[in-house]
Amino acid sequence: MSDAANREPPRDPQELERMLIERQWAGDVEGMLALFEPDAVVDSGDGELTRGREAIRALFEKSVAAGRKFQRGEQRPALVKGDLAITSTKLPDGSITSEVARRQSDGTWLWAIDRYSVAF
Question: In this structure, are residues 101 and 80 in contact, taking their beta carbons and an 8 Å threshold?
Fold first, then answer.
């Protein structure tokens, strides 16, 4: 899955979580990054926000190098209004993720904001 031609684009905000996990488990950092807007913001819970593709790439490279695997959880139905959507997943440890996705001009969806955990 390291070849960009083999990556399907997310056509529904509900696909983002599955694609992120599959790509992370495959070690596909560029594929993970392709699910985020260029100026996206990620709150990984370490006390600092990660802003923009280069910083997010570094975060994902570190995660993949450490062998960290995102857990599959119970994905909640996306709440969609126009070109915006809130996505969320309850993880096996009880934590809950929260993301904001935006529909792109080509009809695909990308995350603009990703918070790894909003509650336990």
Answer: no
Contact 110, 99 (CB under 8 A): no
* Distance, CA of 27 to CA of 12 (rounded, Å): 23
Q: How many domains does the chain have?
A: 1
The type of residue at 18 is R
Q: What is the pLDDT of residues 35-75, one digit of tens each?
A: 999 999 999 887 889 999 999 999 999 999 999 898 899 99
Instruction: List the CATH number of the domain containing 110.
Output: 3.10.450.50
The range of the structural domain enclosing residue 46 comes to 4-119
pTM as predicted: 0.90
Do the beta carbons of residue 53 and residue 38 sit within 8 Å? yes
CA distance 115 to 46: 11
For 56-119, give the secondary structure using H, E and C.
HHHHHHHHHHCCCCCCCCEEEEEEEECCEEEEEEECCCCCEEEEEEEECCCCCEEEEEEEEEEE
Bridge partners (DSSP) listed for residue 110:
102
Contact 9, 31 (CB under 8 A): no
